[in-house]
Amino acid sequence: QHKTTAHLTIAVNVSARQFRQAGFVAEVLHTLQQHNADPKKLKLELTESLLLGDIEDTIARMVQLKSEGVGFALDDFGTGYSSLSYLKRLPLDQVKIDQSFVRDVLTDPNDAAIVRTILALATSLDLQVVAEGVETTGQLGFLRLHGCEAFQGYLFGRPAPIDVFAREHELGLMAPQPVTASTERRESP
Q1: Backbone torsion region of residue 81, taken as left when φ is above 0, otherwise alpha when ψ lies between -120 and 50, otherwise beta
Q2: How many beta carbons lie within 10 A of that of residue 69, not counting itself?
Q3: Residue 186 burial (CB count, 10 A)
Q4: Ordered alpha helix ranges (H), the chain
């Protein structure tokens, strides 16, 4: 662990197939222990496709990992298969607003309404929200105005290998970030 990056949370995308593997929970916990990593610094990002399978098994696995400190985000929220009833049942910490809604939030009244609704719903369920695909200060302003406090997108920097990210972070070379911005990074599709 490096002092300049020790405060960061690592977000890892996990496919439904990976999550359903028999030894997934044990493997995650073993890897954390093997590397002496703080489970509270790991967030697993799951997509709504995971909800198509055995929901009770999914919840049980999430609860087991959550009890060890691992966090969960529902990625690309609003684009998949989820029922709102799952939001109250899943042990989530965060939802991520899909970039398809953020992209035209300033020009499409429907996207703006969807984003405002997701933010209000998440707030009422005590879930954090990350807006994905933030590329302009206008998008950032709209999101902040409506209560979003964490962001991800090219406005804050491009995806980079960990050594480049750590060096830029340590040297202060990263793009200026709002105090409340998420520093999560993910490769573009």
Answers
A1: alpha
A2: 12
A3: 15
A4: 16-20, 24-34, 55-67, 84-89, 99-102, 109-124, 137-145, 162-171
In this predicted structure, the answer to whether residue 67 has a pLDDT above a threshold of 80 is yes
- If you ran DSSP here, which 8-state letter would residue 81 be given? S
What's the CA gap between 95 and 72, in Å, rounded? 9
- Give residue 28's pLDDT: 98
**Residue 94: which of 64, 116, 63, 125 has the closest Cα?**
125
Tens-place pLDDT, residues 93-151:
999 999 999 999 999 999 999 999 999 999 999 999 999 999 999 999 999 999 999 99
Shortest CA distance to 99 belongs to which of 153, 157, 160?
153
Q: Give the number of residues written for the chain.
A: 189
Q: Where are the alpha helices (DSSP H) in 68-104?
A: 84-89, 99-102
pLDDT at 12: 95
What is the SS3 assignment for 141? helix
Distances (CA, A) of 69 to 32, 72, 126: 11, 10, 18
Give the closest residue to 6 by CA, choosing from 186, 183, 181, 187: 183
Structure tokens at 174: 């990263």
